Amino acid sequence: MDIDINTTLAKSANEQLPLIINHISETKESVSRIMSLIDPRVLERANLRSMFRNVLNGIESVESDLMLLHRTVMQNIIAYEEAEARVRTKVQNVPSAIE
Q1: Which of 58, 71, 78, 98 is 20 to 30 A from 52 (CA-CA)?
Q2: pLDDT at site 4
């Protein structure tokens, strides 16, 4: 049984996450700016403040989850590469059956 992970492809996909996280951060800032432009009386009367806060909390949650995913994937890629290198070294050090 072979377990072979294409770490190059995994790294490439993982490197896209910071760009996505940045876009989400910009979206959060835009929502916050829009909220600040609305008259406070309107925000309270239509319960918009609560809705905006819920949206901002949701965006922050997604942002945080993606940052955690990015770190976790990178850590696991590194651990996989290190384990693979250790296995290769051990296999190379096993005496050949022909000797």
Answers
A1: 71
A2: 77
66 pLDDT above the threshold of 60: yes
CA 86 vs. chain centroid, Å, equals: 27
Q: What is the CA radius of gyration of the chain?
A: 24
Compute, in degrees rounded to 10, the torsion defined by CA atoms 18, 20, 25, 29.
150
- pLDDT of 54 higher than 60: yes
Q: How far apart are the first and last CA of the chain?
A: 26
Q: Tell me, what's the pLDDT at 90?
A: 87
Cβ-in-10-Å burial (0-12, 13-18, 19+) of 32 comes to middle
The pTM for the full model equals 0.78
Query: Rounded to whole angstroms, how far apart are CA atoms 73 and 35?
Result: 35
Q: What is the DSSP letter of 97?
A: T
CA 79 to centroid of chain Cα atoms: 17
